[in-house]
Amino acid sequence: MLAISRALLSNPRILLLDEPSLGLAPQIVSKIFGIIRDLKAQGTTILLVEQNAAAAVSVSDYVYVLNNGVIYIHGQTDQFGHGSELMNELTGVYV
Known about the structure:
95 residues; alpha+beta; two-stranded parallel sheet; two-stranded antiparallel ribbon; 4 helices; globular
């Protein structure tokens, strides 16, 4: 969270985030993704790398899914929405 705060001090046009939810409590994860939504609404471009597929899709416009370093699938976020077959495949347990 401190790293994100420090990055935002420079008022970036693009923000690169690598696993911002890693090791955080679920309540904090919700807050982080709320902040990501706010930054997006303010016009900040965000490149997000995240294993929590549901959270990542919830804040994304476009999705790339990597499997062993190779693009497995990509597309508009609406292909990856709640309950989609693709989302079920990606997470295995997402409902």
